[in-house]
Amino acid sequence: MAEEEKNKENQQAEQGDGITYLSGMYQDWFLDYASYVILERAVPYVNDGLKPVQRRILHAMREMDDGRYNKVANIIGQTMQYHPHGDASIGDALVQLGQKDLLIDAQGNWGNILTGDGSAAPRYIEARLSKFALEVAFNPKTTNWKLSYDGRNKEPITLPVKFPLLLAQGVEGIAVGLASKILPHNFNELIDASIAYLRKEEFELYPDFPTGGSADFSRYNDGLRGGAVKVRAKIEKIDNKTLAITELPFGKTTTTLIDSIIKANDKNKIKVKRIDDNTSDRVEILVHLGSGISSDRTIDALYAFTDCEVSVSPNACTIENDKPIFIGVSEILKRNTDQTLLLLKLELEIRKGELEQAWHFASLEKIFIEERIYKDKEFEQSENMDEAIAHIDKRLEPWKPKLMREVTREDILKLMEIRMARILKFNTDKANNHIQSIEEEIEEINKKIKNIVPFTIEYYQHIKEKYGKDKDRKTEIRSFENIVASKVVVANEKLYFDREEGFIGISLRKAEYVCDCSDIDDVIVFRRDGTYLITKVSEKAFIGKNIQHIAVFKKNDKRTIYNVVYRDGRQGTFYMKRFAVTGMTRDKEYDLTRGTKGSRIWYFSANPNGEAEVLKVILKQKARLKKLNFEVDFGDLAIKGRGAMGNILTKNDVHKISLKEKGVSTLGGRKIWFDADVLRLNSDSRGKFLGEFQGEDKILVLYKNGEYQLYNFDLSNHFDPDILQIEKFDSQKVLSVVYYDADQEFYYVKRFEIDEIIGRRISFIGDNPDSRLVSITWVHYPRLEIEFGGKNASRENEIIEVYEFIGIKSYKARGKRLTNYEVENIKEIEPVIKDEDDKPQEEEQEQSDEDVPFEVNRPKKDEDEDDKNQMSLF
User: Fold this and answer.
1) N or C: which end of the chain has fewer CB within 10 A?
2) Distance in angstroms (rounded) separating the CA atoms of residues 84 and 598
3) Contact 82, 153 (CB under 8 A)
4) Residues facing 799 on adjacent strands
5) Is-contact 187 205, C-beta < 8 A?
6) Nearest Cα to 669, choosing from 642, 644, 646, 697?
7) 193 contacts: CB under 8 Å, gap ≥ 6
């Protein structure tokens, strides 16, 4: 049918009726347009990882290359011989290539990917191909060519790139009905993965973004469609009132990031006092907080409500054999590595062919001259060229079996073109050496071809060593904990309740104040008849008049326990129950009673930490009822589900129920774990168990740079990644520390108890950044063994009983010098007195002249020059 309709349309068009049918136009023209955009503009080729405009730019720059910089305007003009889409598209693509800092050596103002500032005009900036590009991307002998769009020039179909360029640079393109988004990867990691693939080893590839930050690649899906990458800015806490953003998420600039923070602040999602942008060559955005604002909670809020955290969706689509294909980044790397191997092999074979040709002619030349064929009478008396060629060919007959190939007419013609001056200067030994050197090079090439995989590995290692020194990973690989927006949003609204009308909302400012909340919070409402529901905070919503309790609802909160006494029906039994509400369907009504008509709540309490109070119950007088009042303890009840009926309190009529005694928590301390992957605390049994925390308990963190900090056990706390040890704080424990003092240039030991100062990191090895921590221990009676080095290497190792060597001082004290001799190593050894043994009687020690606070500046003593030698690292 389709063919008949098309024929009919063609016939009508031939009859000149002037009708153009949209279906035919769509089928032919639009498909051609879509194919052109996909193949020639938006999607890169898997062979070299370049879009057509990028390939044409590089080819034009290679033609212009003379080692000097060229004006970008000139490069654009040169490229327009090959690219038919105007100078604007060429200029934009060239600037993007230059900003990737891989293929192009740029000079001048090329813009700033951190701030989003644009580049200077093309007439002001210059560029040339980088040495890396010249080495890995060009070889006219292995390039396949095609005519340019106007047929006047030749351009490469694809460049012979011997590197996974597509994965190193990344790409983003939108075509007609098709899109491609391949994220950039680390230069050195790509080389390592290629080497691993050649060695038949497993490898993993994760993106590395030029703006740094941290990223969670748990759902990367090898870069295929459907995957997602969470990328976060790096936020550092300068102090409790100042946050510093020092690295950006991929695809964001300081301008867009600051705009998103301002927008969140305007919506009262976060509270920011001031933002300073000090970015130049490095990102520095200072976020100043107001008084009473938690810095840790603000960090979470920045991730939840601003562009400090973004989700990037990759879609690995490339062109192969003029068709779009969807393959993961691992497969792309494998294909690029295979192509590199083939290109290297092809280059070797081409070089081998050139050497064989050189050897062939050098051998013929040697025979021609040494045998004085040019002096033969037959040659000199030849009547024409054919006779001369036939004679030479006949004279060469004895040597033909030793040659690498047949002697052709062109070879003989080339021999006949040798000048007499060259013949007269001919040196047999020099000719033999030349032929031998060619043979040795051919033999070496044959070995490389035979061992092409090891040769390719050597090539990659060479590239890494030569160009990968300053290309360390910028994006930290992390696992992110999901941030619940409702837990970190600023309480930017106030909730009111109109008892007379039965409405709650944030706009009822003349009504009764309930609590602070945010506009994304949920509210839980209990009525006196036992029904309850959860509803979203709104301007105004009807909930009913007989309200027992209103509060902000926290999902999955297992520590808020509701203690309730209710009567079943109008004359029924009194029940008591304890339950938690961890999750409900919004705006759906539930009932905490048995649902009997006339049921009513007689006592209600909401306890944030599972407290269980004692009640006094007074009954109504009744015949033969002797005991009219009694006490009941909620602590005797188990916490059950919210739908449980509860325990019977009494079957008699109740006159009054009152609180006799406030309760304590029945849930015990809160068990806390530390997840090292996300550097966060949790109560979900993930990571290292720190202990059970109550009240004023604290967490102690020791850092690798010789600092410590005390934290509360709030789950919103943030920790720096350089953690040496984290544990529940015990004020009775004594810390023994060995460190190198850069001011005194000696090793010191000290013992001290942790001062209970919360909120800041405290250095216990001094303020000199060159001082370094050697070891720490909580052992009560530690022993150290000192190994000497340098000129003192012959000294016998010294054993130090630390508890005898130095007493317990303040963390500010410098401690006591371990030795005056050059040290090779200090190690902790098994103590003689174990912690479980009785502590021996310690002799009172005099304070060392080194046991002074760091703030005191003391002059160095005069020591021998041998003792002042720089100590080795260990």
Assistant:
1) N
2) 83
3) yes
4) 785
5) no
6) 697
7) 203, 204, 205, 333
Residue 249 near residue 211 (C-beta atoms within 8 A): yes
Are residues 193 and 205 in contact, defined by beta-carbon separation less than 8 angstroms? yes
Give the CATH number of domain 332-467: 1.10.268
For 97, the token pair is: 């290539």
Ranges of the chain whose pLDDT falls below 50:
1-2, 13-16, 840-874
Report domain extents, the chain. Answer: 43-161, 207-324, 332-467, 493-631+639-660, 670-868
Whole-number pLDDT of residue 603: 95
CA distance linking residue 383 with residue 436, whole number of Å:
37
Looking at the chain, the number of H-run helices and the number of E-run strands are 20, 47
- Per the annotation, the verdict on 124 as an active-site residue is yes
* Tens-digit pLDDT profile for residues 27-65: 677 777 777 777 777 788 998 889 899 999 999 999 999
Inter-axis angle of helices 452-467 and 187-198, nearest 10: 170
Give the C-alpha separation, 270 to 301, whole Å: 6
To the question of domain 207-324 being in CATH 3.30.1360.40, the answer is yes
Q: What is the pTM of this model?
A: 0.73
**Residue 871: its pLDDT value, please?**
29
For the chain, the C-alpha Rg in angstroms (whole number) is 41
pLDDT at residue 712 in the model:
87
- Rounded Cα distance, 741 and 92, in Å: 54
Cβ–Cβ under 8 Å, residues 823 and 789: yes
87: exposed, middle or buried (Cβ count in 10 Å: 0-12, 13-18, 19+) = middle
Question: DSSP characters for 365-401?
Answer: HHHHHHTTGGG-HHHHT-SSHHHHHHHHHHHTGGGGG
How close are the terminal C-alpha atoms of the chain, in Å? 84
**Bridge-based pairing state of the strands 734-741 and 746-753:** antiparallel
Token pair in block for residue 329: 């980044």
- Per the CB < 8 A criterion, the answer to whether 457 and 199 are in contact is yes
Cα–Cα distance, 792 to 224 (Å, whole number): 61
Per-residue tokens: 399: 């040597």
493-631+639-660 maps to which CATH number? Answer: 2.120.10.90
Element (H, E) at 788: strand 783-788
Beta strand pairing call for 746-753 and 707-711: unpaired
Q: Which CATH superfamily is domain 43-161 in?
A: Topoisomerase II, domain 5 (3.90.199.10)
Q: Around 752, how many Cα atoms within 13 Å sit in the side-chain half-sphere?
A: 21
**705 Cβ neighbours under 8 A, 6+ residues apart:** 722, 763, 773
How far from 524 is each of 194, 589, 608, CA to CA, in Å?
57, 11, 14
**What number of other Cβ atoms are within 10 A of residue 192's Cβ?**
18
Residue 344 CA from chain centroid, whole number? 33
Sheet holding 234-239, edge to edge: 234-239, 242-247, 285-288, 274-277
Question: Three-class SS of residue 453?
Answer: helix
Closest C-alpha to 245, from 207, 216, 288, 290:
288
Residue 9: left (phi > 0), alpha (psi -120 to 50), or beta? alpha
Q: Do domains 43-161 and 332-467 have the same CATH topology?
A: no
